[in-house]
Amino acid sequence: MAEKKETKKPAEEKAAKKPASKASEKPYSTAGATERRIGAVICWLAAIACEIVAICLYSGKIEITFMNTIVALVALLVIDLILVIVGSMLWKKANHIDPASEKNKVKFFLWNNMGVIACIVAFLPFIIMILTDKENTDPRMKKIAGIAAAIAIVIGVLFSIDWHPISEEAKSEQVKYQNSVYYTQFGKKYHLYGDCQHINTSDSKTEASVEEAINHGCNDVCKTCADKYEKENGKSYLDIQAAVEEGAK
Ligand SMILES: [Zn+2]
Fold first, then answer.
1. Model pTM?
2. Are 185 and 217 in contact (CB under 8 A)?
3. Distance 38 CA to ligand 1 centre (A)
4. How many alpha carbons lie under 13 Å from residue 83 in its C-beta half-sphere?
5. Cβ neighbours of residue 230 under 8 Å, at least 6 residues apart?
6. What is the pLDDT of residues 3-41, one digit of tens each?
7. How many Å lie between the centroid of ligand 1 and the Cα of residue 96?
């Protein structure tokens, strides 16, 4: 007799393999979130250290002889910006792996905007110092450093904003709902159907659980897929999400 083949879907296997979370009741794994948050904080502290050095350099508290002060200031601001952005990327990833609860509005806001706050702290004091500096002897340095810092804070804030934040409640409900979805490298939504027109030709199409899609940064379902789902099932995927959001308020 022919051996009976196991036809379990990969997503089901994954769900079965997943160990029960001991630390919390969350229906998804939060592994890796804490390490990323620590990494983010280290980056941000290093960014602020760069800013402090830049302030000391600008105000003449420290002097360097091996390179032009203006070049050194701009270099410090660039390193400051890179550290802010890397920190914010790590922090945003951690927020998708382990999102904050919507129940605490203040924490939810702070958690999602921590990168923006870090960016402001890493640049604003420097900018204020330049704006309030009345007796600097070098107007060229003031102008160049001021413009560089202004550009850096704008870029830093834009990179630090989480344009698609997710809450603990929304993630908990979504990971329960569908087992197998699709996402692409740079997509912002996950798809219920592998042959969806938006991902049909994508080389980076990945089949995954909703949890993995959300961790990747795709926290919403694709509209086209949701419409198709509704037609096939007579039940709206989006309605269920909306009901969850209502419940969380
Ligand atoms: Zn789709």
1. 0.78
2. no
3. 35
4. 23
5. 236, 237, 238
6. 444 444 444 444 444 444 444 578 889 999 999 999 999
7. 20
In angstroms, the CA 111 to CA 73 distance is: 31
The total number of residues written for the chain in this structure: 249
Q: How far is the CA of 230 from the centre of ligand 1 (A)?
A: 13
218 Cα: distance to centroid of ligand 1 (angstroms) = 12
Ligand 1 centroid to Cα of residue 190, in Å, is 7
CA neighbor of 50 nearest in space, from 147, 110, 125? 125
Residue 21 DSSP label:
P
Any idea which residue has 């969850």 for tokens?
244
For strands 181-183 and 220-221, give the pairing.
unpaired
Ligand 1: distance of its center to the CA of 164 in Å? 17
pLDDT, position 176: 73
